[in-house]
Design brief:
Elements lengths: L8 H4 L2 E5 L5 E2 L2 E2 L3 H10 L3 E6 L6 H9 L10 E3 H12 L5 E5 L2 H9 L3 E3 L8 E4 L7 H12 L3 E4 L5 E4 L2 E4 L1 H12 L5 E2 L6 H9 L13 E5 L2 H11 L2 E5 L6 H5 L9 E3 L13 E4 L2 E4 L2 E6 L2 E4 L5 H17 L15
Length: about 350
């Protein structure tokens, strides 16, 4: 169930693990209120790191984009799936080991930073394969990755997102290309660096303790995102509290019908809620829940709320429906849900 805080989120948590697309920006455009809210949270003492499944963009490139929105950002604060994948591989193989890579220059650079030797021939007998995504990927790279895996190389991937949004529509993502190697070899990856796996949050937490800084306790870390099936699920898998914002993919209906592994700890309209305390819904009866002055109630086959423009009404509706599904065995398929206008 949703939690409450006695102090603003920016004070209740020491480290924010922020997703980028849909939370901080949409493509080249900043999300409303995001930059000023992040700045204010940092001024309140919150450390911010930015987590992304993208494996092709350099940390400096992303940092420069965020600076263009008025944020103060250092490259180390950008945690890409290439950064995470390289660190994962380095822990799994000997120092200096040969690694075959499918990916862009950023992945190559991160592997070398970890003291690994990147090779481009299967004949060099790599002990690991790391597969990322980039637009210029070729069939020969898939074939060589498959050959190396068939010969016993450990198989790592940057993420398993099946699709990726592009200017002209939806295109095959890294996960679709990973599936090609799995189909050829019958071998599943040892690990994936990207969300919904929790490795990205774990590595971000470690990287935040650079230069001798104290490791932030997990209970003081907050995963923030706009997707339930990546950002929020990764938090739940890793034991992190999470906050979903309604500035990207997630919508009220998704939240009300979310399965347990996709449910966030907090629901926010946007990042301005970092400066607010979070109220928790409470049960009035089996069929009615309340969050502050807002209510949600099951009447027949309809869920009614006090105000479809009130974020607290959505919090109450989520609590009502999650409780009905989990404890009352209510089938939500035929329920009429409120049409929120948030």
């Amino acid at each position: 169930m949703l939690k409450a805080t006695e102090e603003p989120i920016e004070q209740a948590y020491g480290l924010a693990l922020l997703d980028l697309d849909g939370v901080v920006y949409r493509g080249n455009d900043p999300v409303d209120y995001a930059s000023e809210s992040i700045t204010k949270a940092q001024q309140a003492g919150m450390t911010v790191e930015y987590t992304t499944n993208n494996s092709s963009r350099y940390q400096q490139t992303v940092a420069d984009q965020l600076r263009g929105f008025g944020l103060e950002v250092e490259p180390w604060q950008i945690i890409t799936s290439s950064v995470v994948a390289a660190r994962m591989v380095a822990r799994a193989v000997p120092k200096g080991a040969k690694v075959f890579m499918v990916g862009a220059g950023h992945l190559h650079e991160e592997l070398e930073k970890q003291g690994l030797t990147v090779v481009d021939r299967v004949e060099d007998n790599p002990v690991a394969v790391v597969q990322g995504w980039y637009p210029e990927v070729t069939w020969n790279e898939f074939a060589n990755a498959s050959f190396a895996v068939e010969r016993g190389a450990q198989y790592f991937v940057t993420n398993r997102d099946l699709t990726i949004p592009r200017e002209l529509g939806i295109a095959p993502g890294s996960g679709a290309m990973v599936q090609a190697v799995i189909t050829a070899t019958g071998v599943e990856p040892v690990a994936s660096a990207g969300k919904p796996e929790s490795a990205m949050y774990d590595e971000a937490r470690l990287l935040a303790s650079h230069d001798g800084a104290t490791l932030v306790p997990k209970e003081r870390c907050l995963a923030i995102g706009d997707r339930l099936d990546t950002d929020i699920e990764a938090g739940n898998r890793g034991g992190y509290d999470s906050l979903v914002v309604l500035t990207g993919v997630a919508d009220p209906k998704q939240l009300m019908l979310a399965a347990p592994h996709l449910r966030p700890t907090y629901i926010a309209r946007d990042l301005r809620d970092l400066h607010q305390t979070m109220p928790a819904p409470h049960s009035v009866s089996t069929t009615q829940w309340q969050c502050e002055n807002a209510t949600a109630e099951l009447v027949g086959d309809e869920v009614r709320v006090s105000d479809v423009q009130d974020i607290n009404a959505l919090r109450a509706a989520c609590a009502l429906l999650w409780n009905l599904v989990d404890n009352e065995n209510v089938d939500t398929e035929n329920l009429r849900l409120p049409d929120f206008k948030l």
